[in-house]
Design the sequence.
């Protein structure tokens, strides 16, 4: 996801992250509005130092959380 390899997610990379998170959590493509909302939620949850980007450490912590949530969601499905 870190397209420019600068060690953080920012700009369009945050859009890609939000799309991925939404799909993993809800097993569907989101509308532009849903993706914008997910981007805001994801950024708020990850960007602990509030600098507008998500660094590797912030992302790793969030990835574990989302992975667990996605696992629980898919496990609960019939």
Sequence:
């Amino acid at each position: 996801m870190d397209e420019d390899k600068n060690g953080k997610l920012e700009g369009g990379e945050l859009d890609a992250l939000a799309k991925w998170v939404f799909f993993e959590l809800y097993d569907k493509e989101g509308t532009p509005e849903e993706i914008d909302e997910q981007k805001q939620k994801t950024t708020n949850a990850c960007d602990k130092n509030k600098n507008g980007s998500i660094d590797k450490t912030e992302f790793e912590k969030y990835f574990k959380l989302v992975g667990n949530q996605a696992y629980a969601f898919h496990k609960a499905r019939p």
